[in-house]
């Protein structure tokens, strides 16, 4: 049965371009949306996945990328995130080699290029889903929906929710996964070229192989096989009439049609890939904390279900209105729904009403083209999102815009159909104006959002208005300010982070460090003591606590804190150094008690205080040393350096 061209395609308010021109326009739109991120910095998660990831270094054995997770930790480690994406890491390593180091421009350029390619390939994917697989006499695939597939691809190219995946280098995993998802899907569709009864097994195996490649870029790639199962059921025939007929015939008819063989091969291939992925994880699934995904830790099953569905509604809202975008949605950004009187419970109810309405139209509409388009739109919207849904396992986030990269394609397909439907029933010039306005707004928003992702300062501060209750947002703003030398401003954001999340040990540690340098030692000790009480294995906080206690002359406690830090982190040279300095100070002070007129003891003690930032004590002991021995080697030079530093500090204060 040959399907006719969807009637609503003609009414879409776009010019009918040739295949080449439509692809060039789509690539251009994708480019202008995110091109301003090409010379941005490494931001947010890029620090762990790229800057601190030793697997990118050419001196590290290449085989390590097959043993470690995405962040460079060994998969067998209990602390591993279990995100096995060796092919994505390999592309990072190639970027490193080509650039001769960690230069972000090459990383960003490749991300933007990948998004352009994916957006162009979406034309082919949408053409198949809307208009089925139809070939001419020479076997060339025909696009029965040139305008609809072009419009859906434009919506996809310009959607602002893609900014995290494109402008954030870590989003490379989503881009590569989407690319091989598309290739697997298109290769599978090649198998229908010879008709339903001449189904080359080679195409199925090629599709499964490309699915495996997609999984090695990101775990979400496995969902392409589920989409292909739906394709096997509905694509070669009219959506429901022939489907019912097919299952009302004898089993022999199913076998001869090739349907059972296709489904069996896809099922076996998917099962093997899932089994291999589970074996690779080693010690089991990763462990996450309550702050990462609070709904999954709710004791009441009903509360978990309600909050999961609220998360789904928020993801849907990001697709519909991608204005409130944030680099992180954890740590109180989305408070839990704990009562039936919480007004937010309306949103999941509204979401399911909309989904049920779409499902009803997909099942019961008299228009076969409408049924086809809505069915595949829903499949592409829902299936790629399932790994992030908390249905099968706990995920380590509340909302992550990057996981919507593939799912947004289903939304764009449904949106393109909506435009076509409205063009048939409303005034065409109004629909045209609304469509162009939506595209222009999305392009402008994508460009603005990718500008935010150019630096950590702009990225973190942009989140303050979106997630003011997110402690991690305030922490990152404070950390960025502190790294740029503005410690006074950083204190404000660290305090707010601790207020919002009283057990935020990293914020306590960083705030304690700043207070230590400002000589506010009592509060610093209180904060750091709280941090190690909440997280006893926090080695850095133990060491910083030891430094503060040393400054407060609590030498025994300081020594114990240093040993605790070393106990939890065996290879900790800074802590060994501080422990050595602590013992050295005690040695020199005891020596001076016995004989206060030893110039070398005063000089060495002055050097210790100089390094610790206790400049007044350093000045005093330098002067005592020079008074006792004006020719003491090195003491005069160190004393002059100290005086210049004191003068500089005085000018800054003045």
Automatic annotation (TrEMBL):
One of the Pfam families matching this protein, by short name: TPR_8
Residue ranges constituting the DUF1736 domain according to the UniProt record: 284-356
Ranges of the TPR repeats in the UniProt entry: 471-504, 505-538, 539-572, 599-632
Membrane-spanning parts: 20-38, 112-134, 169-189, 201-223, 243-276, 308-325, 345-363, 375-397, 403-422
Protein's pathway: Protein modification; protein glycosylation
Primary residence: endoplasmic reticulum
PANTHER family in UniProt: PROTEIN O-MANNOSYL-TRANSFERASE TMTC4 (PTHR44227:SF3), PTHR44227
Record's protein name: dolichyl-phosphate-mannose--protein mannosyltransferase
